[in-house]
Specification:
With 583 residues, this protein is of the alpha+beta class. Helix content is 45%, strand content 12%. The longest helix has 25 residues.
Length: 583
Amino acid sequence: MAGRIPPEFIDELLARTDIVELIGSRIQLRKAGKDYQARCPFHEERTPSFTVSPDKQFYHCFGCGAHGSAIGFLMEHDHLAFREAVEELAQRVALEVPASGQPVSVGPDHAPLYRLLEQAAGLYRRQLREHAQASRAVSYLKDRGLSGEIAARYGLGFAPPGGDFLLSRLGVNQDQRGQLLRCGLVAEQDGRHFDRFRDRIVFPIRDRRGRVIGFGGRVLGDGKPKYLNSPETPLFHKGRELYGLFEAQQAEPKLASLLVVEGYLDVIALAQFGITNAVATLGTATSSEHLQQLLRRVQQLVFCFDGDTAGRAAAWKALETALPLATGQQSLRFLFLPDGEDPDSLVRREGAEGFGELVKGAQPLSEFLFDHLSAQEDMTSLDGRAKFSHRAKTLLDRLPPGVYRDLLFKRLADLAGLPTHSSAGPTRARRPRLQPGRPLRLSLIAQAIALLLNYPELAAEATQVDEDWRRSQSPGVDILAQLLENLTVYSSMNKATLLERWRDHPHFAYLQRLSVDPFLRDMDAESAAAEFTGALRRLSAEVRKEERRRPFNQRSTSDWSPEVRDQVRREAEAARVRRDSSE
């Protein structure tokens, strides 16, 4: 794992990045005063509510609440991890991401391996066009109904027979052979190196950024195994990657649904017919990590399996893996194909429209779960219903708390003939309902933080106010103090760079919400300065008042110090004078 990226580099990266240019390269922006507007890319809307501020280098949607810096936009829109988003921005502005001065653990530089895999992919593609024995591969692909265009889109290639095609071109010396071995392109036996992929159609496997990280190979002829994947390498982990995901995102950036199939050629054959939202696992069952990746991207997942015993067993395993992630907010469905059919053969027979109708009729997760369990028990007997209920409850307990879980427990009660309350488990405390249109008033600390995030130049105003507020015991005082310290050292920070300094902090999400709170709406720089200094003065006044009252909160007057007794006497005398003068 690479070390932490120095915050100073993030500052420089965001300073060089034009967020308007970045977001404008992905969605259509139009000028609206000093800002830019668009229809939000994160939810459906007719009236533009998505705003990009070039001054703050920040985006915000008043409809769904999405907001953040250029890094946050790439993470949300392009589904990148933090480091990937930083690397993407760095590439755009010709910066090299440095290692931290004090890295947690500095890993090896994998750039040479990425380059090597890309070179190999290029060589394999060229062999499909030029090699004397590639005609068998071309004939096979044509027989499967694939065009040259679709083969090029997925980068298909040909690995010639023999064991030294790549070795002779990319493994000239010992260091190069070692790299070929590390990225799984060659294998070793008894000290001898040889190409892993031989006499096979080659399918490059790309990561979410389009980089080749491994290969799959389909044998030509009767050799074994029929399909061969790259082994686990520093770049390739089959339990994490999905074939065709990059291509699906390229074909349709705003994916609404994804179809999970079982093989490379299923993905490509569907794409040949215009169904470009299919992905495949890589010779392994669907993992929790696969599902988390997919559910971050789409609202609907359809698992496509053969209708035979093996296919239904694989589907049941996928259901069990999905249960802890099933909230009901996203649709999880299961499509079982007719006997003897796979997506490739079925789409060729039914066409895209017919296949699409089958997908629309896929079983919801809840239906598949109850149908599968009830088919294994005699639901006409008490014993059968009891077994069914026990098995179902064990599975439903794995669902996350929420309405969907409650509804499935109610369905279980209906099917088993049980009272609803006996299955749903302990009731959860209901959250208090907020009055619509009446947002909660921010505390003074929260107001000061929100103002400072939006107007970092206000840090200079803090020096004009006494600092008694720093002794406050209120939550958030330490954050306010740290923000001011950051701005003292880095006075040129804008909203985006200031917030990014807090990305690893537990309260990052709260700070982001504060930065777009309705309290700030329609506030200009002058009124923001008055509000900020006013909040600090009131905080300081509260601190002084609390410190004056603290000695009087002791149990007995006999515990009072002489100083406190003197203070009480003076305040009582002052009160008497005020009373007499008013009379």
